[in-house]
């Protein structure tokens, strides 16, 4: 039959270590993490460094983590309530800097851009699913002979039955039952790798059965004498290794262990009470076709599959591919973040907005757009209002609204990048007077303060704003843009139109053609932006570079498609005083996509810029995002 602690404790005449001996929660923490979520973790091979890690496996209350920029040969496990894992942003908040992992295989100077590209559009593990680490016991309460469950450090995806072989000050010797010392190790009494009897059953992790060398006493012995023989690695090396190959190190099926809710609340067994029978997942033999070496041992104990991700087979993985996550080099999916602290305007119900997820995606751009627009409709006081701002598009996802006792549907336009998704949403939200509702980065608690001043003096400007190009236009001629159909799918309100006309008349009155360079023929560029056209109202010469520089080649292209050289050109042309810093952008290989992700603190920390140039660059990058370049 399969292994049960109740039967095993009776056979070995042993007692389990009480729960108060361990640095573990009395009620195991819930594991709400998902594969591919990102978090911050200490580099286990360089514990002074905090790195970005990705969840690549789950089992019970543990996470299998892989450091971004590392290969798949150094995965490690952490409990969900470990102090060594934190949400993204914790390191920076506490004045630290994220570091590349030991063995980062790219050039060290490329780390900042690698970091930006890795995090852009990634699913960050939310703060709420992290748990506070439990306190350490006040002293070492372990006694020799006590039983427990322990991580096999040579095969850390395994948790196995073990015994306290010796106690020495704050250290305990963990001896694995039935293995004659091959896997034993010393650890502190407050190690997170040791657990009370029944832990795996409570968390849904799979407990490995003991090895075949378990000593079953013929007559009852005091607990302190049970299994206290010194481990003998040398005398049984061949037998143990053969057994290890056949039982412990074979690849196992990937199966998520689950337990019933009632099981979670079972108290931990203590020496003063009889041990309750614990339910265990039914064990199966190895998968059909799995390779096993012939064994000479009689009646070996059956092996249960673990719920963890199997050990990676790196024999067929090219090193470059293993080193650099594909998401860092290309982003086929997008992720839009919701600003729940921002102004929702007169049309959206703030309470409903608070119930929305923190982000939409990562997913295809068209799907993310559909989710975001549908969320706006669902949160509206009157769905008809939001629906009226939209026009029929082609090739995109379908959204729906219910009003006038009918369900109405509409096709959104096809979009293919986060830039166009944001442009569409900015235009829609501007019409809804709920500016700064969406962004491509997570919002902080005070996000609603960041850009509010940009809207206050120009609240009724339409979603379609006009920005000065090389000179004064005659009639307003829209710039040809492959995404025009997408942007035109958002209607502007009539109030907005009159406001725009009024401001353009004011602009024409203030700026006579004579004040501009002769021969200026380009039209005002139309852009979708959730920002004001304050640039139109600036006095002549207030932007001294605007009329003289030739930006037509750059301005006609999506900034996210710029090359490193074009980014350098943008830096030089934005402000001649920034020219000397342009070479830094080549050194760090910053292309257009990376440029749009830069913040002043990043430029200071990772690129070595001083505060003044960093703030200037941030200003120009923000204008670029708003379509003002």
Automatic annotation (TrEMBL):
Molecular function (Gene Ontology), one example: chromatin binding
GO CC annotation, single: nucleus
Cellular localisation: Nucleus
Entries under PROSITE patterns matching the protein: MBT, SAM_DOMAIN
Composition-biased stretches (Basic residues): 246-259, 280-295
Keywords: Developmental protein, Nucleus, Repeat, Repressor, Transcription, Transcription regulation
Protein name per the record: Polycomb protein SCMH1
């Amino acid at each position: 039959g399969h292994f049960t602690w109740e039967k095993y404790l009776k056979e070995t005449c042993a007692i389990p270590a009480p729960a108060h001996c361990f640095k573990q929660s009395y009620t195991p923490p819930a594991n709400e993490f998902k594969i591919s979520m990102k978090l911050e973790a200490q580099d286990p091979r360089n514990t002074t460094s905090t790195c970005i890690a990705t969840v690549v496996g789950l089992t019970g209350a543990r996470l299998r983590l892989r450091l971004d920029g590392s290969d798949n040969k150094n995965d490690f496990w952490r409990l969900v309530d470990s102090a060594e894992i934190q949400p993204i942003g914790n390191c920076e908040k506490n004045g630290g800097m994220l570091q590349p992992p030991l063995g980062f295989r790219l050039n060290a100077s490329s780390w900042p851009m690698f970091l930006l590209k890795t995090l852009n559009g990634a699913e960050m593990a939310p703060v709420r699913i992290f748990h506070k680490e439990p306190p350490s016991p006040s002293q070492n309460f372990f006694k020799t002979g006590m039983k427990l469950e322990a991580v096999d450090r040579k095969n850390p995806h395994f948790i196995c039955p073990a015994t306290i072989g010796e106690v020495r000050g704050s250290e305990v010797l963990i001896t694995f039952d039935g293995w004659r010392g091959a896997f034993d190790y010393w650890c502190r009494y407050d190690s997170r790798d040791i657990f009370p009897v029944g832990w795996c059953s409570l968390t849904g992790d799979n407990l490995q059965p003991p090895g075949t060398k378990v000593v079953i006493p013929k007559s009852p012995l005091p607990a302190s004498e049970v299994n206290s023989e010194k481990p003998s690695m040398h005398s049984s090396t061949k037998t143990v290794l053969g057994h290890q190959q056949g039982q412990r190190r074979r690849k196992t099926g990937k199966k998520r262990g689950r337990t019933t809710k009632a099981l979670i609340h079972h108290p931990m067994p203590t020496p003063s009470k009889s041990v309750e029978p614990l339910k265990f997942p039914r064990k199966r033999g190895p998968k059909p076709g799995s390779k096993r070496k012939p064994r000479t041992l009689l009646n070996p104990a059956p092996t249960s599959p673990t719920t963890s991700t199997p050990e990676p087979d790196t024999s067929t993985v090219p090193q470059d591919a293993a080193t650099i996550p594909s998401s860092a080099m290309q982003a086929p999916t997008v992720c839009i973040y919701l600003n729940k602290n921002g102004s929702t305007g007169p049309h959206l119900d703030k309470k409903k907005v608070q119930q929305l997820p923190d982000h939409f995606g990562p997913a295809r751009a068209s799907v993310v757009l559909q989710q975001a627009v549908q969320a706006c409709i669902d949160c509206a006081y009157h769905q008809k209002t939001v629906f009226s701002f939209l026009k029929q598009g082609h090739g995109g996802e379908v959204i729906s609204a219910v009003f006038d006792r009918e369900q109405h549907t509409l096709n959104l336009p096809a979009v293919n990048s986060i830039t166009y998704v944001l442009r569409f949403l900015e235009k829609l939200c501007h019409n809804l007077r709920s500016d700064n509702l969406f962004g491509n980065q997570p919002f902080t608690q005070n996000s609603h303060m960041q850009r509010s001043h940009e809207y206050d003096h120009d609240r009724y400007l339409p979603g379609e704003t006009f920005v000065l190009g090389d000179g004064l236009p005659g009639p307003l001629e829209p710039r040809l843009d492959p995404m025009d159909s997408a942007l035109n799918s958002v209607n502007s309100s009539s109030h907005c139109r009159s406001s725009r006309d009024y401001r353009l008349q004011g602009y024409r009155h203030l700026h006579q053609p004579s004040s501009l360079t002769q021969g200026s023929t380009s039209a005002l560029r139309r852009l979708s932006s959730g920002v004001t056209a304050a640039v139109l109202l600036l006095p002549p010469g207030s932007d001294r570079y605007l009329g003289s520089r030739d930006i037509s080649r750059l301005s006609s292209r999506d900034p996210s498609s710029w090359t490193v050289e074009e980014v350098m050109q943008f830096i030089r042309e934005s402000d001649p005083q920034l020219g000397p810093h342009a070479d830094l952008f080549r050194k760090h290989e910053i292309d257009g996509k990376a440029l749009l992700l830069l913040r002043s603190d990043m430029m200071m920390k990772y690129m070595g810029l001083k505060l003044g140039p960093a703030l200037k660059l941030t200003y120009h990058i923000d204008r670029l995002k708003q379509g003002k370049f």
